[in-house]
Amino acid sequence: MSTRRQRQSYECAPVAADAKAVRIARELKIFLEKTTSRSRAHRSRRRRPTISFDDVFAPALTFAVNRLRGTTSPVAKKILTNSTWDDLRRHLAKRLAFALAPTLRLQQNAAKAVARSVEAGKRQRNRQLVSEITLLETIIEFPDLLETAARLISAWIDAQHELFARLLRDKADLCSTLLRYRQPFRVTGIRPGLSDPHEGGKTVTMIEFAGNSRVIYKPRASDREQLWFEALRWLNQNGVGVSFRMPKMLARRNYTWMEFLPTMSCRNLRAVRLFYFRWGTQAALAQILSATDLHRDNWLATGSQPILVDAEVIGDTESPLRERNNSLDRESLPPLLCTGLLPLTPRDRVGFYRGIAPLDAAIPETARPSCWPRYRRVPQKPSRFVNELVRGFEAVVGVFATPELVREFFHEIILPVRRQELGRVLLRASAQYGRLLRDSFEARNMISAGERWRRLARACCASALNREIGLAEARSLLRCDIPKFRRRRGAFLVSWKHFSAAIAQLTRSSQLLRRRVLLGTRVGRC
User: Fold this and answer.
1) Do residues 112 and 232 share a domain?
2) Is the distance from CB of 251 to CB of 292 less than 8 angstroms?
3) Which segments of 79-186 are extended strands (E)?
4) 231 lies in some domain
5) Which of 194, 256, 314, 481 could form a disulfide with 476 if both were Cys (CB 3.0 to 4.6 A apart)?
6) Tell me: the pLDDT tens digits for 100-114?
7) Quick one: which H or E segment has residue 375?
8) What CA–CA distance (Å, rounded) separates 59 from 39?
9) Is residue 363 a part of any domain in this protein?
10) What are phi and psi of 258, to 5 degrees?
11) Cβ of 479: how many Cβ atoms within 10 Å?
12) What's the pLDDT tens digit per position in 223-236?
């Protein structure tokens, strides 16, 4: 595929300019200058020997939360309890710690080293100096740290404003669809950060209302999830032999409200077997729909029902990122291995993927993955129920053995959604973006203004499909987001060519499913 075609096929969602972040950086620095002297005097009176990172972040958190509260509409404030603001503060604290801690740790270690090197008579005074490390001092020595904190705070404030506005706009529909009408519309808890941050710090968020009702907010369209559950309904109606639970959803053009589904244990081993039978049918469906990125965090075990909670990456994907040494080539993978459900081996020549796939026996039971069913509080590994997985997979093979049903599925399920909203395309694994992001937070990249951007631009452009995509990735990572690319409008969701090829390989894939689930194990069936 040529560079020109690549540029026409993929695009990264636009993000607002950094003018607001520049203003926040200026105001944050002024705020820190005013508060640092007061906090130092207060600590000296208390004769506190050490200071934690939580104390270092505290002024920035106060600044951000006060700014958010001051710019939130009075109507929105009425539905938000004090505990909600505490939840939001804790979320921002985690985000700031992730970005700023490497530099602060270096600053703290350097100060301790200086204290240890002085003579004994002055050591007590220098210990007090160590305790006086502040965020203001750190951003003076590492200027890019201020810019990074300002970008995080700016995006975090905008994301919460957007969430509050959507809550108020959809109040009536939320009450009638996902909540209890008689309960007051009061938000008692907010838990952001349930997904990677995209497009300005937006994440999947759990919202708790009065009466212990909970709703999941997704800051993106849900057309792929709707397609997935519609396909499951079709399978149920055409003799696959089991029913599937469909979570309630309130879909909007650019975001979605979804029913909160708690993890639940299975009542008996029969329920566990049903769980894996259902999962086998969904593995076959994932191959048919060219689904990818179905890692373990995208699944939830609710009793005997495996629920796919994130089906954003469904549809044909041209070969994503290839390394320049050509060691990676996903086009050569069997379609079932492209789904992310199964572990990969070195022979697959597509990189490391162990302990991430939900059907990987290498996941330790102590990790307590939420995707595995539980019986008597013990996670039930897929390798013990491989026969049920294969039977579920083969049930779908039997359905699509009828040519009339193959054509019916394609025309009723796939074709109606082929020209809907842009579908996400993975150009790198999220874990690789995460490594690039973590590396950019090292103190050496904060030493001068613009250094972190230069580091990201070099790293992304060195391995991207082309320079345009590399710079788009670097811009997203600069804002502490995981980049998200989409296929342009007009592309087919799944072409007839890919669809028919996936159907043709179903029989062979059932054997591959068994081998990969049992990979590296000697565990017998339960």
Assistant:
1) no
2) no
3) none
4) yes
5) 481
6) 999 998 888 877 776
7) strand 374-375
8) 9
9) yes
10) -135, 145
11) 20
12) 889 999 999 999 99
CA distances from 483 to 165, 437, 475, 526 (A): 25, 10, 8, 42
- Asked if 292 and 339 touch (Cβ cutoff 8 Å), the reply is yes
Nearest to 400 by CA among 246, 281, 279: 281
What are the tokens at 402? 């009828």
Which DSSP state fits 267? Answer: S
Q: How long is the chain?
A: 526
SS3 label, residue 133: coil
The pTM score is 0.86
The H-or-E segment that residue 218 falls in is: strand 213-218
For tokens 């993106």, name the residue. Answer: 220
Three-state DSSP state, 299: strand
- The pLDDT score that the predictor gives to residue 2 is 41
| Number of domains observed in the structure of the chain | 3
Residue 103 belongs to what domain range?
19-218
234 and 193 assigned to the same domain: no
Q: How far apart are CA 24 and CA 3, in angstroms?
A: 38
CB atoms within 10 A of CB 140: 13
CA nearest neighbour of 276 among 190, 388, 401, 191 = 388
Would you say 245 and 305 are in contact if contact means Cβ atoms under 8 Å apart? yes
Q: H/E element holding 117?
A: helix 82-117
Instruction: Tell me the average pLDDT across 303-331.
Output: 65
344 with 444, same domain? no
